[in-house]
TrEMBL record:
Regions crossing the membrane: none
MF term (GO), any: 3'-5' exonuclease activity
Region (Disordered): 1-26, 309-332
Protein name: Ribonuclease D
Ranges of Pro residues composition bias in the record: 316-328
One Pfam family hit: DNA_pol_A_exoN
HRDC domain location: 233-313
Species for this entry: Longimycelium tulufanense
InterPro entries referenced in this protein's UniProt entry, alphabetically: 3'-5'_exonuclease_dom, Exo_C, HRDC-like_sf, HRDC_dom, HRDC_dom_sf, RNase_D-like, RNaseH-like_sf, RNaseH_sf
Length: 414
């Protein structure tokens, strides 16, 4: 049975209808090849778009793999797949979804782990992104379902450890509800975007998300250690790097989230305290615990390696960035660029407000900064449009912003 829209017509601002169970009940989890082939045939025989979601174990596991895949298609109902039990082999599912449109909420979060399983959409509708482009201030799945369909979803297990087995029944209910209304939500959002004249913009954005390259690893990820700003010297930074790398190796090997092996705060505390030996290290908070006592030799070894590094191998306290400096430094380093950025932000804010768009969806803030810091030699509308296109802007964004940005740059004194 399909879940209908809540009837809110003519009722002012009605109370949303609580939705605590899927209309067809929670299906059994698909955990063996025969069951996978059966549900794949059902999905292939059904019609229309397919709702897709995943559950990961962020904060618990090192990997970002999917521990549950949820799907729903009119005529096939809801399917819950355990990719771990299936050894990541979902070939029948890959074949059954060929040529279908996927409906995903916040697709950029789910597509990478689905790609690891061989699942890649040929067409995409991202309901979160659609909500942003429609100008809605709240775009979480529950908020959009409530606003557009009149239902209130029961939430609460999104941050759970989905690597746990067996999965509790209430978690599976939550997972099934995440795809229960995605297809009618897609229809309602498409209607809204069409009414606002934004559907073509949304289709370009969805395609950009679908075809985005995989995120590249950071050159020096240890520099994102929380609290690192308290440490100034190259030798201290080398110690942070050594502890971070030792922790990362353990976390990767054990498939545990790094923060569960050793919190960032403990890394910073140890570097700041600069203990002479294991006995001093074990006096620090966190390191007194039994788990850390077992690893004390690893942590102390990392600190000692950092102490022995020659100066030429110490990290730079102020590494070069790929791109412009933080905007709060522009006025001192390049006042003209700072003026360009101020003018550009003003015109973009005006355009975004006029069209009920978040300004960051109108044009990527990073692209705006890069264009203002190092503008094209030709700041005519055509020249600015070319620069924006090179920077990855979509056609609709260029059409809406290139001329206004050109005028803002011309108005800025050289």
């Amino acid at each position: 049975m399909e879940v209908p829209y809540a009837d809110t017509a003519g009722s002012g601002d009605p109370e949303p209808v609580p939705l605590t169970e899927p209309a067809g009940g929670v299906p059994p989890v698909v955990a063996d090849p025969a069951a996978l082939r059966r549900v794949a045939r059902n999905l292939a025989a059904a019609g229309g778009p397919v709702a897709v979601d995943t559950e990961r174990a962020s904060g618990y596991r090192y990997s970002q793999r999917a521990y549950l895949v949820q799907l729903r298609r009119d005529g096939a109902g809801t399917v819950l797949v355990d990719p771990i039990a299936l050894g990541g082999r979902l070939d029948p599912l890959v074949e059954s979804l060929a040529g279908t449109e996927w409906v995903v909420h916040a697709a950029s979060q789910d597509l990478p782990c689905l790609a690891e399983l061989g699942l890649r959409p040929e067409t995409l509708f991202d309901t979160e992104l659609a909500g942003r482009l429609a100008g809605f201030d709240r775009v979480a799945l529950g908020a959009l379902v409530e606003r557009m369909l009149g239902y209130r979803l029961e939430k609460g297990h999104g941050a759970a450890d989905w690597s746990r087995r067996p999965l509790p029944a209430d978690w599976l209910t939550y997972a099934a509800l995440d795809v229960e209304l995605l297809i009618p939500l897609r229809a309602a959002l498409e209607e809204e975007l069409t009414a606002q004249g934004k559907l073509a913009w949304a289709l370009e954005e969805f395609e950009a998300v679908r075809t985005a390259p995989p995120p590249q690893p950071r050159a020096e990820p240890w520099r994102r250690t929380s609290g690192i700003h308290k440490l100034r010297s190259p030798r201290q930074l080398a110690a942070v790097r050594a502890l971070w790398e030792a922790r990362d190796a353990i976390a990767r090997e054990r498939d545990i989230a790094p923060g569960r092996v050793l919190p960032d705060s403990a890394i910073v505390d140890a570097v700041g305290a600069n203990p002479e030996g294991i006995a001093e290290l074990l006096k620090l908070p966190v390191y007194r615990g039994r788990a850390q006592r077992k690893l004390a030799g690893v942590w102390m070894g990392a600190l000692e390696r950092a102490r022995r590094l020659p100066k030429k191998e110490l990290p730079d306290p102020s590494p070069a960035h790929d791109g412009p400096p933080p905007p709060n430094r522009w006025a001192d380093r390049d006042p003209v660029a700072a003026a360009r950025l101020t003018a550009a932000r003003a015109v973009l804010t005006g355009i975004a407000s006029q069209h009920r768009l978040p300004v960051e969806n109108l044009l990527s803030p990073d692209l705006v900064r890069r264009t203002c810091w190092q503008p094209p030699a030709d700041v005519s509308p055509a020249g600015v449009a070319a620069a924006l296109r090179t920077g990855g802007a979509r056609n609709w964004q260029i059409d809406m912003t290139a001329e206004a940005l050109s005028e803002a740059m011309h108005a800025t004194p050289a």
